[in-house]
Design goal:
alpha/beta; HNH endonuclease; six-stranded mixed beta sheet; globular; binds zinc ion
Amino acid sequence: MFGNTFHLLDGRVIHRGEVLPKDAVTVLPGVLRQRPVFCGDLIPVSAHGSSLYNLLTDKDWSAIRKPLIETVNQVCQACGRHQRRYLQAHELWEYHLPETGNQGIQRLGEIAILCKDCHAMFHLALADLQGHGEETMQRLMALQRWDTATAALFLDIMNERRDCHNTFAWSLDLSIVDMDVLHIQPKWQCHPELPNVLQRPSEHWGCSRQGGMQYTAILGKSWVLDGMEHPAIASPLEGDVRSVA
Ligand SMILES: [Zn+2]
Ligand SMILES: [Zn+2]
């Protein structure tokens, strides 16, 4: 499934059966790691469409994504495939549940650079809808070296987590983004009564609650929409070392 040639994230090439160089620990793609860190994901329906890709202008998103692709020498961080074009960026979110109420914080932890096939492992529900759920799951199992029982257990845990997360509304903590001001796509508007809340008509399946609108709020960065700059709202998580749900 992964071929016989793997690229390390520093650009070196390894062939199947060769001994890994000792100094390569930090630059191994997921598939060559003893314990891969890539595990797939199910994004809560209530957070669908709030990705950086959906939120930011093309220019901003490129300015974030392109340097990251260069940093890993155009190599998929999961499978070690080298692609000069077409590598995609996937946001790895941490979901922080509130002690009371239903407003959670979705904190951007990292952005992974992935080929299209590996990116699908992080959107399993979408892969199912698009008719390549089975092969995507096979890929995830091969990458993680899981048997069917472990894969089933993983799916149970992810489904349970997703169902729990679906009962919350999410603010996006974008503190780690390396830009001073973010530019928001014009398909979003400010909420008429809550100027710090962004809204747009929902485009996503299963998201027709709340009158077909989708809402989000940005923490940790100032942002511009329609020429109006909105100052940053500090994230309550600032300085908080992982209390991830
Ligand atoms: Zn890949
Ligand atoms: Zn993604």
